């Protein structure tokens, strides 16, 4: 048995919940093959570099140190670092040497030709985390054409099969770009999605790379 206070509290809670804004976690896009290749390169480079620093003689340890200091940030920048975070209010793009924050209202369009790109504020930004594979795109097109020829009722679309409605037949990059395009159209009118694009240089990557390059140039010059 409930008291009137409990009933009023339950009513207030039920009436407040529909109007409460829904929150969703960010969608994160990365390139698994890029990350795997980067980890392998880091492991191989670390093994060779550390071995040279331990067993090398003369200038070899210093050259190995300079090479690692210059190469490791570059490998991380192009393989592990790239990502795309799509939230309710903005699109956060982490490219090798820049981080771009794009409120949805500033996004003018997204497209995937030979590369994945987002247009915002009159500028074009490449999405390194969503690589375009022409092989996967051709495979998806062949799969769709085969499914359409086997469907006598013409129910198969370019994206979804009639027999498997939960299966998206597009290439992974096209699926991701379709999701981003839909989020841009849906969230552009949100209050928190207003603003201009912001670009920040990734000095945590640039600084050690330049330091390693300078050290390597000095070691080669004095040798």
TrEMBL record:
<feature type="transmembrane region" description="Helical">
    <location>
        <begin position="62"/>
        <end position="80"/>
    </location>
</feature>
<keyword id="KW-1133">Transmembrane helix</keyword>
<dbReference type="Pfam" id="PF10756">
    <property type="entry name" value="bPH_6"/>
</dbReference>
<feature type="domain" description="Low molecular weight protein antigen 6 PH">
    <location>
        <begin position="81"/>
        <end position="123"/>
    </location>
</feature>
<feature type="region of interest" description="Disordered">
    <location>
        <begin position="1"/>
        <end position="25"/>
    </location>
</feature>
<feature type="region of interest" description="Disordered">
    <location>
        <begin position="141"/>
        <end position="172"/>
    </location>
</feature>
<feature type="transmembrane region" description="Helical">
    <location>
        <begin position="201"/>
        <end position="222"/>
    </location>
</feature>
<feature type="transmembrane region" description="Helical">
    <location>
        <begin position="28"/>
        <end position="50"/>
    </location>
</feature>
<keyword id="KW-0812">Transmembrane</keyword>
<feature type="compositionally biased region" description="Low complexity">
    <location>
        <begin position="9"/>
        <end position="21"/>
    </location>
</feature>
<dbReference type="InterPro" id="IPR019692">
    <property type="entry name" value="CFP-6_PH"/>
</dbReference>
<keyword id="KW-0472">Membrane</keyword>
<protein>
    <submittedName>
        <fullName>Membrane protein</fullName>
    </submittedName>
</protein>
């Amino acid at each position: 048995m409930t008291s009137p206070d409990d009933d009023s509290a339950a009513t207030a809670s039920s009436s407040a919940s529909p109007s409460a804004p829904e929150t969703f976690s960010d969608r994160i896009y990365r390139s698994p093959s890029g990350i795997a290749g980067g980890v392998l390169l880091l492991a191989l480079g670390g093994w060779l570099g550390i071995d040279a620093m331990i067993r090398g003689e003369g200038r070899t340890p210093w050259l190995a140190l300079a090479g690692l200091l210059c190469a490791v940030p570059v490998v991380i920048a192009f393989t592990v670092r790239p990502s795309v975070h799509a939230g309710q209010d903005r699109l956060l793009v982490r490219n090798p040497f820049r981080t771009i924050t794009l409120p949805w209202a500033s996004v003018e369009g997204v497209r995937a030709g030979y590369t994945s790109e987002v247009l915002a504020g009159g500028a074009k930004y490449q999405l390194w985390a969503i690589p375009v594979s022409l092989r996967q795109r051709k495979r998806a097109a062949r799969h769709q054409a085969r499914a359409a020829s086997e469907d006598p009722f013409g129910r198969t679309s370019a994206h979804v099969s009639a027999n498997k409605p939960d299966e998206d037949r597009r290439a992974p990059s096209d699926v991701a770009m379709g999701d981003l395009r839909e989020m841009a159209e849906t969230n552009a009118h949100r209050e928190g999605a207003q603003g201009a694009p912001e670009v920040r240089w990734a000095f945590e990557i640039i600084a050690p790379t330049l330091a390693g390059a300078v050290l390597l140039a000095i070691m080669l010059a004095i040798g």
